[in-house]
């Protein structure tokens, strides 16, 4: 029975999930497919000049393309976004029409071709009304899969056929794209092993949207504009970026990490003749790609019929050892001509860091015992970080249902007016501050806290991402400095559809924050903000289980040999297990106790037996009735879960 359960579990984890399908029925009349009220269509180029028909009928079935429609240099292009995955499967029905002369039909997936050769003898009966011939039309049901983990996939259908569409034509229908998802803990992966992917933390995202612009990058010798190539917008491109262009960015405040992963899609445009594209990380070359005249197919750029003026798409992934909190990346080429002859562009840039374990500042890997330097609040022991500080609770809110009945100092700006007031909702059975129909576009949350003397603060919270995020960022600030930030959207490890718009295909992501920073100010201002541009019925966020802890300064009491704080003195900074064995060589007559500190004197060893407690200065003590001293803070509960 146990073996059967394991087998079923593995089968469930490797199940193909359909991400996109279109043109399935015998009758359809649109190139597009609809999702969230947005029309997303295929882009057709170089259609046969004698017709305006994109959809034709062949043997009683509608197909995209077909006779007198798709021929020489015709292409069909589409970009779709896919949740975290590591493998794609394509299913489509291809229609070969007319006699082909050993020409190749290709499905390019991010520039990587799947190919099928159609020769003189590849055919059957006439299906689509063309010329009568011995080897005429044929239908192929195609299925293939590839390793793939980029958040978008660009699919291009093209051929090497030189015949016009009234003699040699092609078409397709029943297109379906499926994927095998990453483990639910991972936003990117290369396989189904959660231990290999759960530590990748997304640090940056650029050129993921339609309105592509500079987005914080620096560009030398180029125009900071987007360019549409076969319906897909890239940064740079034709007439914008060419010879001598340098595109760079420096990313700072990265999480402690041992390596980085850089992913982006590169577009080579027009005539490259063994020229090269370079990638540098921190001034070290990490990637070099050379492109020939024969590379690519005609999608955009200069309107040329000469060979070599084609476009090539390359999905690039670079994994490098790296541990610095900042990283500089540069893109450049060896091109010599102006961007109306040679150009390039990029899109879908992602930067990931292999994050060290919690409370580790430096590491050689992501395993629990691979830390080499811990945060100041923790001690390194056998490669692990062990807490050494005492933590006290300043604020513990939104854990129980009763705590969602009051706001208690929190302020909310730009809450969705259609949502509840105060903005408390539920996700599943649990209460949230914010959430669906409450926190959306421009919503900000703030609270100001007053703290006793301390040197570190620690914030724990559970944060919910809900519904249709598309690469936007949610950030927590402490005193106007970024404390925690996360890009959210297509690259999320989506967990389950537990709240929000239950009619959509979006899953919620639950994130647990537990982070420590140095802090000594008596006041702390906490803010939540996001870059969402959608209303709270489309995309939202919320939080619960908020816990603010502080590590108190190690203050000392001072004991004196005479009343009124006179005579000999000695500071006591730690618990004393025996006054007799301590360095105090006098009877204690007065004690100075810092504000917020309490001392307890015990008569018996082990801090047991009769006791006396002092929370304020003691000017004169007649008789010492204790032999041990224990210090502790007053006012706040000690946090026992380290």
Automatic annotation (TrEMBL):
Keywords assigned by UniProt, alphabetized: Signal
Signal peptide residues on this chain, from the entry's feature table: 1-19
UniProt keyword Membrane present: no
UniProt keyword Oxidoreductase, yes or no: no
Domain of life: Eukaryota
Protein name: Uncharacterized protein
Transmembrane segments annotated in the record for this chain: none
Species of the source: Paramecium tetraurelia
